[in-house]
Amino acid sequence: MKPIGIILGLGIGLLVGLLYGIDKKKPQWWQILAISLLCLACLVNLVPPLSTNLQVAKNVIKMKSDILIPIKLTPTAAIQDYHSFSAFEVKYNNITDTLLTSKEIAANLSLNTTYIVESKYDTTLNKFYSDKIVSTSPSISYPFIPTLKDRIRIMNFHVPVAWVCVISFLLSMIYSIKYLKKRDLYYDLVASSAASIGLLYTILATVTGMLWAKFNWGAYWNWDPRETSIFFLLLIYFAYFGLRTAIENDEQKARLSSVYSILAFVTVPFFIFVLPRITTGLHPGSKDESNSGPVLSASQNMLDSQLLIGFAISLAAFIIIYFWIFNLRVRTAKAEHKYELLKFNK
Amino acid sequence: MIEFFDKNSIYIVLGIVLIIWAGLSMYLFNVDKKVQKLEKLIETNE
What we know:
The complex is a heterodimer of chains A (346) and B (46).
Chain A: H1 2-18, H2 28-46, E1 50-51, H3 54-63, E2 69-82, E3 85-92, E4 95-101, H4 103-108, E5 115-122, E6 127-136, E7 142-143, H5 155-182, H6 185-217, H7 225-246, H8 250-278, H9 305-345
Chain B: H1 2-7, H2 10-45
């Protein structure tokens, strides 16, 4: 399920993104599809409530007993006068337990309907007590992780944005090779456009990651291996543009920056996929963990299937939006170059 | 403030979405500026 979801998101993003080529105007239906997909990605990742099941909730309260937990359950029978509370027999995946509720909630609960209820553990009665219904018959919900809570949704924005950087730098390298083969300045324009948008996405991945780090690890910057590697990537690609602005001759600029872009991309897989996994760090998937992170780990349980739907949609949306911006950037650079040539010939 | 955001972490998620939108919009404004400049140059040359 997990590889299929990721491949689908990646595949749809690349297929739709590359449709009509990189420098032809995208038709209106394509543009509407791109915007709709981005809106859908925001909706799918922001709206669904968080929930966990009774079994996990019981493990969570062993560590922290005063935490509010959204539990997904189905009331199967009403219990009369349970220590002066309203109570229901509830079921989730063959586990049966008793849920205590307030009188108002009890009046709103129907039997055999699935709910997500915000619950606290009553340590004297050893039962969950709820006074708030979060959602009724939820079709999609994301896993509740006590250390992350709603911040788990950030994964579906932060990770796809970081992945688009790799696609962008890869495109920059491909067009740099094309330039060195054919010596056509058009390929150099495409390569520099791809690198510039790749740099934009790298900055966005860094800033969103910093904000996430502040609330999960306590500081905006922790020099974790992945943070260090993205810092080096930023330096490498800022230097690419430094090199381009330092050379005036177009041919020389294109030749040198193409070679630089190829060499720069060689470091990308190492910095993004290898280094953070062979060293110890704060990011999931680092050396001190037994897996390679929630997204790339071979274990199916590492990424919740419903969270995966949001991830795949988000990945496809960010790739398609990337190709749209890339298309605009390439067309503008091409028109600028054409204008310069016309002026020169006059 | 940190405590508020820690309790209501959905606002952090919203902030992150806004940062992404702002970043992409800024880049688009930049491209738009370049196109405008180009249009003006073509106009003056015609």
